[in-house]
Amino acid sequence: MRCASLLLAVALFLSGSALAQTQATPDKPVIVLVHGAFAESSSWDSVIARLEKDGYAVIAAANPLRGVASDAAAVSGIVKSIKGPVVLVGHSYGGPVITEAANGNANVKALVYVAGFAPDTGESSLTLSAKFPGSTLGDSLTTIALPDGGKDLYIRPKKFRAQFAADVPEAQAATMAATQRPVTLSALGEPSRVASWKTLPSYMIYGTADRNIPPAVMKFMAERARARKAVVIEGASHAVMVSHPGEVTELIETAASGR
Prior knowledge:
The protein has 259 residues and is α/β, with parallel strands linked by helices. It is built from 11 helices and 9 strands. The protein starts with a helix and ends with a helix.
């Protein structure tokens, strides 16, 4: 009986509070941050601190990294729980997720791609990353077989810093390698269904030393989406939100203000 009561209390808490109570202030939207593959929510820590200092409510969503449609549904659920406007921010594979999650949510006011894919309908992370040369991600990966026959992908720890976070301090990059979350191979190959950047203002930031998504791919996507603002950081790695949180925060706040 006590166990049943505890479970009921937890269910009521989750349904009646927490994220469901998050709402925008009168002049500021809620910022929803979505991490990508080989990362996790703590990759946004420095950005979150800056946004909160500037008065923004922030949610760092836990991206399941199982498939674009299902991952987007999870993020969409968070968006639907928020009272007021939202800015969606996606890093890397989080880009396709926010692109899909914005669909059907009228409170999403802008999309910010942080070294993130902005796919058109039918495109996937894999097809976009191969559109121009420069990605060395494939040579850095290792796989783990899943019970359903699929594959989880990880970056080999010894190659993580050079591949993913070359401009991050060595000790911090080692921690990131140890805490990285895998993405399924099928998720990276899953085609997108809705290109919401065609109807929403988009903003992009990326580095010239990104070894996951070639800078030429990012430039192509920014121009195609007619991004309101595209910021290119010389020498920045794929982990640009970790190595350059100030610039990333500034762009998010620009999107939040509608500039």
